[in-house]
Amino acid sequence: MIRLLVAALLFVAASASAQNADQRVQTIVSSASFRDAKAFLEADHDRFVKELITLTEIPAPSFKEQKRGAAYLEMLRAAKLTDVETDAEGNVMGIRKGTSNGPMLAVLAHLDTVFPEGTNVTVTRSGNRLIAPGAGDDTAALALMLGVIRAMDAAKVQTPGDLLFVGNVGEEGEGDLRGAKYLLQKGKYKDRIKSFISIDGGAQDGIVNGGLGSRRYRVTFKGPGGHSYGAFGLVSPAYAMGNAMTKFSKLQVPARPRTTFNVGVVGGGTSVNSIPIDMYMLVDMRSESPDELKKVDEAFQRVVREAVDEENRARSTAEGKIAVEVKLIGDRPSGATPTSAYLVQAAAAVSRSFGFTPTFEIGSTDANVPISMGIPAITIGRGAGGRSHAPDEWVDITAEKNVQAGEVVLATILAAADGR
Ligand SMILES: [Zn+2]
After folding, report:
1. Which residues pair with 61 in a beta bridge?
2. Quick one: DSSP state of residue 173?
């Protein structure tokens, strides 16, 4: 009974907050200053394209974002932010001052791309498409953010709290969200950031309010090695790892909450006629639920230990035993900003006001970090494009589409900065 009542009250609160958000967003997008900002974005389009090309052509693999970071720092400075700086992790950022002491909102786009050093990142143009590795993810968001900052300035838009704009490092793969983690857990603004928007992903009807957690390991099996013929019968890291993989492949995980596992890379050994001295595999596990992620992780650790023990019992350990090193190489926390939270409601209201039907999604983005810390956070799209993480990645640079993408980002920032 009490439960039902609570549920009913929550429902009322949620729909009141949706209405509230819709009203606020209407006020924002129909204001004279918002129209001025839109006009500015239209006039600024060529610069957006130019800066997108400049940034795309500066390679920025995860852990090697310095050059692009330095260029972006200068662009943030040119956009007239204050306190422009690079933090100890390599994030570049600046502040747009609020009018009063409202809560600080952080807005991020990531500097790094998935493409390794040496990738040809020269931009080519085909009709309304710019094509190059990394042009979209997340370089288009970096460029979009600059236009939005300038538009706010040109339209004299004010917010109650400070806005912190960040080009952050380490979003992709083994970067393991290191930029967002540093910003929120160690950086100078860690206690001031009260809400968080990451601009990442393409389509703007999807609002990521759930963080898909993942754990990643590099697992290395080691043994004494030896001649394949002369030392036959000694324990082998290859058999230990093969057994571990077989056991791992048979783990049962729930379909809801969605939980997955994968062996993505294997390697090791030196020659066909040697018992290897080491073998390794890269393992990835994900779940929408922190509990299920913990469970599959524990089961994985258990089967690895069992496989090692079985190998040490199955063959001779006269020259040494099989040992295993399980090294954590990725740890992305999971959780969700409730759909009833003002930030999520505001983003949905913006989406509706531009004619989209908003959906709430679960993703693996920089927003995972604040979400796991209880800070309201979402990831919103940067606009039209495709083939993210592929060499023929492209961005649609049709002016109207980019202007609208900028408007959506701006309206979401303004609604979020407006409070709750
Ligand atoms: Zn991205």
Report:
1. 113
2. G
- On whether the CB atoms of residues 241 and 221 are closer than 8 A, the answer is yes
- 17 vs 11: CA distance, rounded Å: 10
Task: For the chain, give the mean pLDDT.
Answer: 93
Distance CA 322, CA 310 (A): 10
Q: What is the DSSP letter of 289?
A: S
What value, to the nearest 5°, has the Cα angle with vertex 102 and ends 107 and 150?
45
CA distance 135 to 128: 13
Give me ligand 1 centre to Cα 363, in Å: 11
Which residue spans within 58-156 are E strands per DSSP? 82-86, 92-96, 102-110, 124-126, 129-131
**What is the Cα 322 distance to its own chain's centre?**
37
CA distances from 305 to 37, 82, 276 (A): 60, 53, 19
Higher pLDDT, residue 18 or 389: 389
Q: What is the pLDDT of residue 14?
A: 52
Torsion sign over Cα 383, 192, 341, 345: negative
**Per-residue model confidence as pLDDT tens digits over 377-414:** 999 999 989 999 999 999 999 999 999 999 999 999 99
Write the Ramachandran bin of 386: left for phi over 0, alpha for psi from -120 to 50, otherwise beta.
beta
CA of 248 to the centre of ligand 1 (A): 29
In the reported structure, the alpha carbon of residue 4 is separated from the centroid of ligand 1 by a whole-number distance in angstroms of 40
Burial class (CB in 10 A: 0-12, 13-18, 19+), 148: buried
pLDDT score of 262:
96
Task: Tell me the percentage of the chain whose pLDDT exceeds 90.
Answer: 89
The three-point CA angle 349-352-353 to 5° equals 85
Tens-digit pLDDT profile for residues 49-91: 999 999 999 999 999 999 999 999 999 999 999 999 999 999 9
- Give me 213's structure tokens: 């957690």
- CA torsion, ordered 408, 412, 139, 103, to nearest 10 deg: 160
Tell me, what amino acid is at 290? P
**Residue at 342: amino acid letter:** Y
Whole-angstrom distance, CA of residue 28 vs CA of residue 35: 10
CA–centroid distance, 137 to ligand 1, in Å, is: 5
Token output for 329: 């190489």
> 415 C-alpha vs ligand 1 centroid, how far in Å?
23
Residue 119, classified by CB atoms within 10 Å of its CB into exposed (0-12), middle (13-18) or buried (19+), is middle
- For residue 365, what pLDDT is reported? 93
Is residue 235 within 8 Å of residue 387, measured between CB atoms? no
